[in-house]
Amino acid sequence: MDKTEHTTETPPAGFGVVQGYLKTLDGSPGVYRMLDSESRVLYVGKARNLRARVSSYARPTGHSGRIARMISETASMMFLTTKTETEALLLEQNLIKQLKPKYNVLLRDDKSFPNILVSREHAFPQIKKHRGAKKEKGSYYGPFANAGAVNRTLNQLQRAFLLRDCTDATFESRTRPCLQYQIKRCTAPCVGYISEQDYLNAVHDAERYLSGRSTEIQEQLATEMQVASEAMEFERAAVMRDRIRALTQVQTTQGINPRGVSEADIIALHLESGQACVQVFFIRANQNWGNRDFYPRVGIDIEAPEVLEAFIGQFYDNKEPPRQLILSHPIDNVDLMTEALSDKLGRKVEILVPLRGEKAELVEGAARNARESLARKMSESATQAKLLKGVAEAFDLPATPQRIEVYDNSHIQGTNAVGGMIVAGSDGFMKNAYRKFNIKDDSITPGDDFGMMKEVLARRFKRLLKEDPDRENGQWPDLLLIDGGAGQVSAVDEIMREWGVTDIPMVGVAKGVDRDHGKEEFHRVGKRPFALQRNDPVLYFIQRMRDEAHRFAIGTHRAKRAKSIAANPLDDVPGVGAARKRALLAHFGSAKAVTRAALPDLKAVEGVSDALAQAIYDFFHEKG
Using CA atoms, how far apart are residues 180 and 393, in angstroms rounded to an integer? Predict the structure, then answer.
């Protein structure tokens, strides 16, 4: 992208700031940023003609309340010129996601979506869930709205086509069929129960189904079932019958399966009381692959076209768009957005706002979901606001907390020790803000919960002080909840004082003498412990946060322990890839036996050269 950036001497704040920049601008396309007196970005916008666009802000009247406030806070501006307006659009949405300006519409939840991958790394392809960059060789089908939608589809596809879901390493190590074969979810290619060609035929049928040719496959299976039945091959006929039933079940669980829409995202917006919900349905291969709701940050006086345009630009910034976007509302720069998305996909993308027919019915269904989802969200937010206010009253806080951080540790006799941090706020649990801490300090006595908590809090606040010393980015907590009593609170207080953080309230949550839910005691520095009434909603809220922190810490610990158990010593040996690892395991029977093998035995393994055998021997000899 050809772009230039420049700033000029800052004029007085407000409308005079904007007026002062006009003489420095020409009619080039580009992106502008409006900054406050502390150089924080207030707004990022794009323009076909920078001078004309910025001049609109120089008028003292005719602005919405939101824009008028933004202009009044503006102390300086920055500009980036681009070759085309399309480049400006892409740059604008990228900067909004990076900088999170106060007055822009902001997509807050932007996780990747899972796909189904039919891997081509093996003679007997594996079918599995995939998320992230598409680096592995194979065919990808998606996106699906969430992991649950993928898992349901995979489950039914395994019933219909009996494809393996095990890893290549598991496949190579099998000597007899696994449980998947016993429950008729796999044909056991690992032990030769099906020929390679027959298995590939099943893979081909599964891919045809995922490509939208389900009716054709069901007709074919029905014909095969009839032929097998007439030939009195009743077992084979029963297999065909089960496959047809499984395919029918997939279609039933999908609910919406439009005939006239093969590949599209249905995007519907509902605005109410300064809040927004965008509902996205993923239609691929004439099948519904799930839906997801999003709650972008908007203002009270913002219009639907601006919200949808910003959502689309940010949503597809790191995702591949489908052939069609079917919208509930028109957007202002539809030609520009169409061009940007078409360039990204490498083929034509259509943006439609249907008024009648099947597409309009799909949008109506998505809009209804958006309206109902926002109503639930607003109700939950009102309840959450009351609970946060109750927490402030219970612990004598100076203000209602907007970010509560809850900490817990998990270990087994000091091994695989981890710390977990969960975050709760006005929108409930903020799972994208959760953090895990692998305990690294070797001087900590195994099982020393005080020492582990001190390490976790030290690392947390060291990072906060480094990344956000002025507490401007909303990453600092208003309240700390610690799983533990007076000892834990004292340990944390000591760390906080060491780092000079003495203004954040902290409460230890300890179970009563009989460790019963409902008899928790709350500990604060320099104050007597106290308890809340058993039926107090604030108590239930605190219990829920403490239990969530415990769940997260336990889950992190289990994952770490499982990884350490599953770790293969051969993984770290230079020059030993998957094929040679399989050869070594097949020859010696286990990784442990390889580590103990003599040099002549290593040289005897097929595919292992004398040099590699020496390297393997030296690697384990030096470690031993």
Answer: 55
List CB contacts of 308: < 8 A, sequence separation 6 or more: 267, 269, 278, 327, 328, 329, 331
Q: What is the pLDDT of residue 617?
A: 86
Beta-carbon contacts of residue 216 (< 8 Å; ≥ 6 apart): 208
CA Rg value for the chain: 30
CB atoms within 10 A of CB 597: 20
551 CA to centre of own chain = 19
Q: Pull the structure tokens for residue 180.
A: 């998947």
Local structure of residue 530 (DSSP, 8 states): B
Q: pLDDT tens digits, residue range 18-60?
A: 988 998 899 999 999 999 988 899 999 999 999 999 999 988 8
Q: What's the longest Cα–Cα distance across the chain?
A: 91
324 versus 258: which is more confidently predicted? Answer: 324
Contact (Cβ atoms closer than 8 angstroms) between residue 410 and residue 368: no
Dihedral sign computed on CA atoms, order 125, 131, 135, 140: positive
The amino acid at residue 347 is: R
Q: Are 587 and 172 in contact (CB under 8 A)?
A: no
Residue 16 pLDDT > 90:
no
Total-model pTM: 0.71
Write out the H or E segment, with its range, that includes residue 127.
strand 127-130
Question: d(Cα 587, Cα 568) in Å, to the nearest integer?
Answer: 16
Structure tokens at 251: 């279609």
Q: Which two tokens stand for residue 62?
A: 């005719």
Distance of alpha carbon 347 from its chain centroid, rounded?
Answer: 27
